[in-house]
Design goal:
Length: 410
Amino acid sequence: MTSELPSGAVSLRPILPPGEAAAAGSERFSQARVERILGVVVGFGCSVLGAQAFFNALTSVQEGPLWRMAFVVAVFVPLIVMVVASSTGLATRACAGVFAIVFPLVLIAWPAATAGRDNAGSSEPWIWFLLNVGTVAAVLAFSMPLQIVWAVLIPVLYGIVRTIQVGPAGLQATLLDVVFAIILALVFLVLGWMLRSVAVQMDTARRDAVGSYAAAAAADASERERVAVAALMHDSVLAALIAAERARTPRERSLAVSMAREALTRLANVDQDAGEGSDAPVPLASFVADLDRASAECGGPPVSGRLPAQTWSLPGRVARALVLATTQAIANSVEHADAAGLVVVVTAGDRDVEILIGDEGPGFDPDAVPDDRLGIRGSISARVAAVAGSSRIESGPGGTRVTLYWERQA
């Protein structure tokens, strides 16, 4: 079966590119709460250290007045913004990243601000109180490699600029400050890493548990459905057989045939909505539009067709059965043949309608299909037979052709 449309056929909808499957994002319940806790704790700690550094900066004489004013604005404005963002949980990473970048720049400029002043003294400058604030800001804003770099960079940078300021005389005290700041920064880094790792593990365990529960619920629902279908089919088939065995008159035989058709329809429609649906007439154009919509939902091609000049209507029950049977045939082709060369063609005459579903897949042997597989027998053949139609399935190495035919009675 080729994938080309028959001569004169008209595509009933444009071919749209298949959409990409949406990725199901993993749950971040615990991670979000750990980040929130870290933000609140860091915001509180930074506010305490920031207040201490601010009051020392107001009375500092180690740098020039203009430098001091510039440093106060450059350091404490981003710090206040970071504290507010961490406490409220709004733009925490961005605000912490700004402070983590600004503070090393202030350290680099510190020797220029203190150059030529002889009142350095032996006490630490006010920027010393903010060393671990800078490293903690990196923990909130950056990835693990940059966190490690910042945990070492800021204390070492402070040691260099402080040595330039006070000279070799204060080298021992400066080294102690640097080592203390590095150790404390690594402690903060490890604590943040541990809390985040535990949150990830908790989210993974929660996701696995929910998946297991969903699978168990689906299995239980399938088993309940199987039992219900078995009971339904037992009652329907048994009643049809009893009616057929007791039928003596033409009316009784007709009733037995109707009961058998109803049983077949229920079996074929067990995976669809309950009942046979409305029996209101369905115009041919609406019927083909339903076929086209069903094909699109299954991932099939646009439906092509030739309709007669004088339109007519199918009984609603017939239209529903043909649409469902066509849907099953398309689904089989998509699943087993990857929809290779798949076409769906509708040809309608003045009294009949024929639907051809063909592909270029590897094909199969219809006689070798196990008896418990109802995809063809129940969902196609029985479904069409229940509305007095016929079906033909031809399959081989070159592909598979499923032909559904229905003719209205005079």
